[in-house]
Amino acid sequence: MASTSVHIESVTKQFGDFTAVNKVDISIAKGEFFTLLGSSGCGKTTLLRIVAGFMQQSSGRILFGDKPIDNVPAHKRNTGMVFQNYAIFPHLTVVDNIAYGLRARGLPSAQVDERVRKMLAMMRLEHLGHRRPRELSGGQQQRVVLARAIVIEPDVLLMDEPLSNLDTEMRIHLRSEIRTLQRQIGVTTIYVTHDQEEALMMSDRVAVMSAGHVEQIGSPADIFYRPRTRFVASFIGESNFMPAEAVADGVYAVPGGGRFNVPAARAAELGRKAEIAFRSHDITVGAPVAGGWTATVVDAQFYGATTRLVLDLGDGKTVQAASTGHAGSVPPPVGTRVGLALPPDAFWIFPEKR
To answer: Which domains does the chain have, with CATH numbers?
Structure first.
């Protein structure tokens, strides 16, 4: 299957006084599964539609490989598009839905039949070729839409929240199928979602977007373990944020008596007041140590595989600690005084939020 790299160079899109996409630069490698992740209104779908050719950017340019495509109409960009609302043809059978793009391109009937046959087998739809969309489940309809996008052998596959209308079980199943299929055919894929778990599980790299900007680009592990901005730290995973104040060179104090050592250059950059963040699952709860970081358990929330403790640090500040449970494990009762510990590489420090 054809595949190409995609280069988004300083792309901006304005609607009157509103800037939906602001000077975005992204390079996507050939065959990469690249995800645009962010909440509603962050600009991710607008950017995808610009790449597809459904919308013209205000400035900047898009290249497929080394070829600028800004003046190439959408139907000539050789992209496959999977929409959130499926956009499946209700009056056509599964076979005719999949074959639609091939017939529109004027391919010979024998070639169309062969490609459709292979796609039906790949999507495990062989027994459903004669059915119409109303006779299919949501997951089957989504596989038909995906097959229709892939059968034309696009240079780039574009997917806009393709699983958002499915129930949780079907969504989990299909995201694994999509990722496996993408690896199998090797097509460059740009995937849009607001679901961080989906992005982390499926992607080679992720761009986290906020208010039209790209906050960070990296592998799923990079953005989860090494967030570069406060927004990424708060958006990805479950994080605690605490006010911190410098009490010595490179040492910051937090509520509850905790102390964190920060590299001198970073401390000098931050100044006296800052904010420390860490994941709930990284904090360890144990017996209190004299002079150490301590808290009081104010709630214990059981989630099956994990238990989340709500901990009062004093001064009206609470944090959460999540731990993996096992048969017979009992969380500390509410009211228990506990000690807290955090590995030195498990926290991030940011300028004080204003």
So the answer is: 6-230 (3.40.50.300), 238-351 (2.40.50.140)
